[in-house]
Specification:
The complex is a heterodimer of chains A (about 500) and B (about 425).
Chain A (H helix, E strand, L loop, with lengths): L1 E2 L14 H13 L4 E2 L2 H5 L9 E2 L4 E3 L4 H14 L3 E4 L16 E4 L6 E5 L4 E4 L5 H8 L4 E2 L12 H7 L6 H4 L6 E7 L5 E5 L7 H5 L8 E8 L1 E2 L3 E9 L2 H13 L6 E6 H11 L9 E9 L1 H17 L4 E4 L3 H12 L1 H4 L6 E4 L2 E2 L5 H15 L2 E7 L4 E8 L6 H18 L18 H4 L2 H14 L29 H9 L2
Chain B lengths: L4 H7 L3 E4 L13 E4 L3 H14 L3 E4 L16 E4 L6 E5 L4 E5 L4 H9 L3 E2 L11 H6 L7 H4 L2 H4 E7 L5 E5 L11 H5 L8 E8 L1 E2 L4 E8 L3 E4 L5 E4 L6 H9 L7 E6 L7 E8 L3 H13 L6 E3 L15 E5 L5 H11 L5 E5 L4 E5 L6 H17 L3 E6 L2 H4 L11 H11 L15
Parallel strand pairs in B: 2-4, 3-4
Antiparallel strand pairs in B: 1-2, 5-6, 6-10, 7-11, 8-9, 8-10, 12-16, 12-17, 13-14, 15-16, 15-19, 18-20, 18-21, 19-20
Helix pairs in contact in B: 10-11
The chains are: A alpha+beta (about 500), B alpha+beta (about 425).
Chain lengths: ~500, ~425
């Protein structure tokens, strides 16, 4: 566990410094019950879904409107206090890791669905609304919200916008950025501004979505609603090994079929899922594929016949098709429980998120296997096979001396493999605080300096979620190329990660 | 630095020629044309231009060079025609990486050999990848596949000071770092030069069907003086035709509208379904279109106007929330005088309106102002893409832009010397 910031430099909310002045101002803006300073309650916000980075926030506020957030952000500017926005705190890269010298702005009291316009296939929601709540509000009328991160029951749409969340079905339907039409944001200066896909000018909306809270806070989000497909067909195929499963995936994509999802699990991941939820996957499988087809019934029927044939031709020894929603849920249960399930077969584990070109999967999996042997660390593989998004689960025993370090090294070397194969260090979990130090392996100084230009345009004072995404942010007045050494967060991350 | 600008440009080693009469950018004549052959050569040209304060306008196929405001000044036309290599077509990954000067037509041909396509319909196959991105052009299938920014997965750009920067990569799923590609998409050359781009591809559909039907907008009425006249009261509400198709489980890829005479003439709706079971799905769409009393045709060929702009000299783009397509059409129809045609992506609620180039400037001004008032009131935007010079001077090209202040700040950071296509963009950017 790492405590990234040990103590508030100015004595916290009760001290004499800027945080105390901000606290007083926030009480004026929000009223006392929306301002949290009690140390015990503050600690409940010390991490997001990535629990090994922890920092107790200097102050937590629970605003109810964009105007309140704007007022808080303006006060942050006045006192030079950094702010971090947080939705439900389910992120897996430490993107919502608070700062002990800053304020955590939590959107949990902004949970209204403001309007639903089915003629325009749009909904306008507040940032604290959960991803699934949008679908639930329109499901009866034949619509849904397409991006479906596995935390969709609890994760907030504001967090989805910050992280550009994906999900199992983004192979066919794309990511959050493809489904957001407009955002009202509070800029890091404290202005309320509309970013709309319809506007002439720069696509600032496209730059904002996925900026991990570093360009401001979304306070109102217009999402596109999709039409519930006529038919859904979920297929479970068991293969003797990962290689044959991989060949089936290539054959399906090569045949021109675009499934809604193609997921793969290897033997170790299956073992964990069986232990956790008894998902009843075919015994003896070295790999299973979950393929979901959706769309017009006639199209799904044709595509199903193709997929079934291609699976069998590539060595599938058992195929199951879900006949109804319950059977579909049973097939997905194993896959969706996989992350947590490895807890049953290992005392501790790291969830990695990397991407490789899909055709590089066999080579990369073989290399991961080799790493696993070399370090004596088991790696379970769960992945979105259709788009080459790997989620290796690096398993270790935290009681065992040095195992954590070895696991972290394996995890890092998997990212190097992804980069070497032309992939990415993150497909959907984000960079956050966790992977900021890997950015220099994927991008040149010039690339990162250019991205900084965007940040400096939005946030010249570096107050909006500072320390996330970028490894060594230079001050906005500095000339490119002048760097201020290693950022303390990175240093802390390097030294204290496990 | 002591050298004259012309000498300095020549010293870069990049092919430079004197500009000719055909090199105008929306009426502004450059002095030189630079023909870089690599990303590094683009950087060399821009670095030199920066040092000498030369204004640069990038150009690809030149098919939309008259779009946007004329630049305040243009010293160097940076022509990407020599950057015409497909760098990598990873067919198994459904990804392609290209230089900016590749034409959309040439790219389509190469991809088709592997049974794939970039699902971005452009009106002119001579347009380059770079130009298509810079002007954010999209066609009918934006309904299913989104626009250029949705299909772009990586970009290499060159900034005014010669910095070469990339973002994204060559994998579809990637959230590492800011998405500079999206920022440059639709930037009209004002932030820098797009040098390379990577796109996600789709398999060419096995089968396609177009379903078309035509609906009247006007009725003959007898007015208070006993005279018979036409009233454009839309007896068939366009939204009632388009909405059910857009939300139908037949999963159409595009729903287009062609409306050659907006004052009283009928409009034609054409729906594309593609992929598995296209015929069965087309028949379902046909049923929906015929529910409004029109006969619908199903064909394996597109209508002749499919994917083309209704005109090019004086072209206005209307964007509305999809539920307001009927409102947009009513505004256009009632503001229209004379020969005005419209065409567009009905379900995505983007309508292109072509006005005659010889229209009286004050009439043009009224038309744009009237339509804009109604459309902005319905939550939409009216943008003048291209207009004859004399008319353009009188028009507000962009209408409402929500985040102009932030856009200016982005421009200042990327191009502090204002050498990249200065003045082409909203707010004088």
């Amino acid at each position: 566990m790492s405590e990234t910031f040990v103590a508030a430099p100015d004595g916290g909310p009760d001290g004499p410094g800027p945080l105390a002045r901000l606290t007083a101002r926030c009480r004026e803006i929000l009223g006392p019950d929306a301002v949290i300073t009690d140390p015990v309650r503050l600690r409940t916000y010390e991490c997001d879904g990535l629990t090994y980075h922890r920092a107790t926030p200097g102050l937590v506020v629970l605003p109810e409107s964009a105007e309140q957030i704007a007022a808080i952000v303006r006060a942050c500017n006045e006192y030079g206090v950094p702010f971090v926005a947080r939705g439900s705190g389910t992120g897996l890269s430490g993107g919502a890791l608070p700062r002990s010298d800053g304020v955590l702005i939590v959107t949990s009291r902004m949970r209204r669905i403001l309007s639903i316009d089915l003629a325009s296939r749009r909904a306008v929601v507040e940032p604290g609304v959960t991803n699934l709540a949008i679908t639930e509000a329109v499901r009866d009328r034949g619509f849904y919200y397409a991006p479906d991160p596995s935390s969709q029951q609890v994760c907030s749409i504001g967090g989805n916008v910050a992280e550009n969340s994906g999900g199992a079905h983004c192979l066919k339907y794309g990511f959050t950025v493809n489904h957001v039409e407009a955002c009202e944001i509070v800029t890091p200066d404290g202005d309320i501004v509309e970013l709309d896909r319809m506007d002439a000018g720069y696509d600032l909306l496209g730059a904002f979505v996925g900026s991990e809270g570093t360009l401001g806070i979304a306070t109102k989000i217009t999402v596109r609603l999709s039409v519930t497909p006529e038919a859904v067909c979920t297929l479970l195929a068991a293969f003797p090994d990962v290689e044959s499963g991989g060949r089936a995936v290539s054959a399906i994509i090569g045949a021109g079929v675009v499934p809604a999802a193609i997921e793969m699990m290897d033997a170790l991941a299956i073992e964990a899922a069986e232990a956790a939820v008894a998902c009843g996957y075919p015994p003896g499988a070295g790999a299973v594929l979950v393929v979901e087809l959706d769309g017009p019934l006639a199209a799904v029927e044709q595509e199903y016949a193709q997929v079934e044939r291609l699976c069998r031709e590539n060595g599938a020894f058992e195929l199951r098709v879900a006949k109804d929603a319950d059977e579909r849920a049973a097939i997905w249960k194993g896959r969706k429980s996989a992350f947590a399930a490895v807890g049953r077969i290992s005392p501790a584990y790291i969830v990695q998120d990397g991407v490789v070109p899909r055709t590089a999967l066999p080579g990369v999996l073989a290399a991961i296997d080799e790493l696993s042997r070399e370090y004596g660390i088991r790696v379970a593989n769960v992945f979105h096979a259709g788009d080459g998004n790997l989620h290796p689960l690096v398993l270790f025993d935290d009681e065992e001396e040095g195992a954590g370090e070895r696991a972290a090294e394996v995890s890092g070397r998997i990212l190097d493999l992804c980069i070497r194969h032309g992939g990415s260090i993150t497909g959907e979990h984000g960079v956050g605080v966790d992977k900021a130090r890997y950015m220099t392996r994927m991008f040149s100084d010039q690339d990162l300096d250019t991205m900084q230009l965007v940040r400096c345009a939005f946030d010249p004072r570096n107050l909006s979620n500072p320390g996330k995404v970028f490894p060594t942010p230079r001050l906005c007045g500095e000339a490119p190329g002048v760097r201020k050494g290693v950022h303390p967060l990175v240093e802390a991350g390097k030294a204290e990660l496990f | 630095m002591a050298a004259q600008p012309g000498e300095a440009l020549a010293a870069t080693g990049v092919t430079i020629r004197d500009a000719g009469p055909d090199d105008d950018v929306a009426g502004v004549k450059p002095r030189w044309v630079a023909l870089p052959e690599s990303t590094e050569e683009i950087a060399a040209v821009l670095r030199t231009a920066s040092e000498h304060g030369l204004a640069v306008v990038p150009v690809g196929g030149g098919t939309k060079l008259h779009w946007g405001r004329p630049p305040e000044r243009c010293d160097v036309l940076l022509d990407t025609c020599c950057l015409n290599q497909v760098l990598e077509h990873a067919a198994g990954d459904l990804v392609v990486r290209v230089q900016a000067g590749v034409t959309m037509g040439a790219l389509a041909e190469i991809l088709a050999r592997e049974g794939q396509e970039l699902a971005l319909d452009v009106p002119d196959p001579e347009a380059t990848v770079g130009g298509t991105l810079a002007a954010a052009v999209a066609g009918p299938r934006r309904l299913r596949y989104g626009t250029a920014r949705d299909l772009l997965i990586g970009a290499t750009v060159v900034l005014a000071d010669g910095t070469i920067a990339k973002s994204g990569g060559k994998v579809v799923k990637n959230v590492a770092g800011y998405d500079l590609g999206k920022l440059f998409t639709g930037s009209y050359g004002t932030l820098g030069v797009i040098a390379e781009a990577a796109f996600r591809l789709h398999p060419l559909p096995a089968d396609r069907r177009w379903v078309t039907a035509t609906y009247p907008i006007a009725r003959e009425r007898v007015d208070g003086h006993g005279e018979r006249r036409f009233v454009n009261d839309f007896p068939v509400d366009p939204l009632q035709v388009i909405g059910p198709v857009a939300t139908s489980v037949a999963e159409p890829s595009a729903i287009e509208i062609d409306w050659p005479e907006v004052m009283f003439g009928p409009f034609t709706v054409a729906v594309l379904v593609e992929g598995a079971a296209a015929e069965a799905r087309a028949q379902a769409v046909r049923g929906l279109l015929e529910a409004h009393g029109a006969a619908a045709d199903v064909s394996a060929e597109p209508p002749p106007w499919w994917g083309r702009l209704p005109g090019d000299e004086f072209l206005v783009e209307i964007r509305v929330p999809p539920g307001e397509i009927g409102t947009a059409m009513a505004e256009v129809s009632s503001a229209a005088t004379g020969d005005i045609r419209a065409r567009g992506s009905a379900a995505s609620a983007v309508l292109h309106v072509a006005l005659p180039a010889d229209i009286a400037p004050e009439r043009a001004e009224h038309f744009v102002a009237d339509v804009r008032a109604g459309v902005e009131n319905a939550g939409g935007r009216v943008i003048v893409l291209a207009a004859p010079e004399e008319i353009a001077r009188r028009l507000d090209r962009w209408g409402k832009v929500g985040a102009l202040g932030l856009m200016r700040r982005v421009k200042e950071r990327f191009d502090p010397g204002r050498i990249m296509a200065p003045g082409r963009f909203p707010g004088g950017i």
